[in-house]
Amino acid sequence: MSTLSSTGQSLPQAERATRRGKSFVQRHEGLWIGSASITVLLVVWEVAWQAGMISPLFFSGPSAVSVKFVELLGNGKLLSALAYTGSNFIVGFTLAIAVGVPFGILLGWYRRLFYMFDPLVTALYATPRIALYPLFIIWFGIGSASKVFIVFLSAVLPVLVNTVAGVRNIDPDLLKAARAYCATDRQIFVTVALPSSVPFILTGVRQAIAHGLIGVVIAELFAGSEGIGFMISYAGQIYATDELLVGVLCVTAAGMVLTALAERVQRHFQRWRPAHVGGR
Known about the structure:
The protein is mostly helical. The protein has helices spanning 11-20, 24-27, 29-50, 62-74, 77-109, 111-126, 133-140, 144-168, 172-180, 185-222, 228-237, 241-277. The protein has twelve helices and no strands. The longest helix is centred in the last third of the chain and has 38 residues, at 185-222.
């Protein structure tokens, strides 16, 4: 049964009705407040920069960063770096999802398989992977292969761990009800296990985005000749703080956009889950 509000509506319907009764500003209150705080921060930062309170040797101001951004965009340097880093991230992240989700489902569904691999997964998750980066570079070289592998390893563990948690936390009453109706394992998996695990999987995807971006940038910082990480590293070596901040802000913006998209998908499935999976 779907969860009902006091008016007899399902929770998603009640939420939508409540949102329709609010003004545009009220519906996007978080966006307005967040935007205002960022604007105030930028104004204070720019005032301090224009007043000479910030040394260009150690930092930069919003106007200088904007000018450098336009310059790097115009000469193609920024687009080239973004394309290289983005392609490595997409390949590694896609592989992480393709491996992490099915393997996590298997580990969560089969108890003995979980016991077999849980110590290894726990050890890998607890290991500071940055300490292994030099080893990965020895294995795969300084080209794209090492970056893709580092993104994969950084992103696959959050997806795997959350998928396992999703499958292992299925409501036992749902499983009992499905078996009472003589459902096969395949039917239980498709109609109960997978839908119940989707919110957990998407939580893992959100975490994997951050881990993957950190991984690809650090990989390029360690050993790279192109990409955003290399641009940041080289700019730091020559004290080009405005160029360095352009690279950092590009990575930050990409992470925020991807995380926002993942959150939107996750909210969709969280609203969908109670009505179709029997949420309480």
